[in-house]
Amino acid sequence: MLPLVAAFATLAVPAHRPTQAQLPPDAMDVQRRVERVLGGPAADCGRFFFKNAKRPAASAGELRNAIACVTEHAATRTPAWMVQQMRGIDSWVARGLMARPDGKVELFGYDSDPAGGGGAAPRFTTQACESPRVRNEAKTGPALACGTAGR
């Protein structure tokens, strides 16, 4: 099963993936927070950031591959994560998935300035995600969502 996990991890990471030095400061903050929750570095199942203001950060197919990667890692209790930048009005916003060492998958959200006025500390939230999936949001395109098992 382990070679299959490696294959998913390779598929999920897009060829245009930025190097650590190219990441925006908020993306680096997200990575630090994820690693803190997971207890250290984790497998990277995809980092999707805007390259063009008129296009989504990731396609539905890219998100499905990243979800498969995270859930495969969860099945083997190997920490992993992925992140998708979302459209924010006045702050840097992202959503992602984490596979915890106990095999649970969590959806996380990040907002660099939840108050929108330049004074609030970034907010990082998590919630259990039994059945991660891709949903198409009319204004923003493909996005991560969670459902209950069997849906």
What's this entry about, in short?
The chain has helices at residues 2-12, 25-38, 60-75; strands spanning 43-48, 80-86, 93-99, 105-111, 123-128, 131-137, 141-147.
Describe what this molecule looks like in 3D.
The chain is an alpha+beta fold. It has one domain (2-147). The chain has 3 helices and 7 strands; from the N terminus they run ααβαββββββ. The strands form 2 sheets. Strands 1-2-3-4-5 form a 5-stranded mixed beta sheet, sandwiched between helices. A two-stranded antiparallel sheet has the order 6-7. A hairpin with a 6-residue loop joins strand 2 and strand 3. Helix 1 (2-12) runs antiparallel to helix 3. The radius of gyration is 15 Å and the shape is globular. It starts with a helix and ends with a strand.
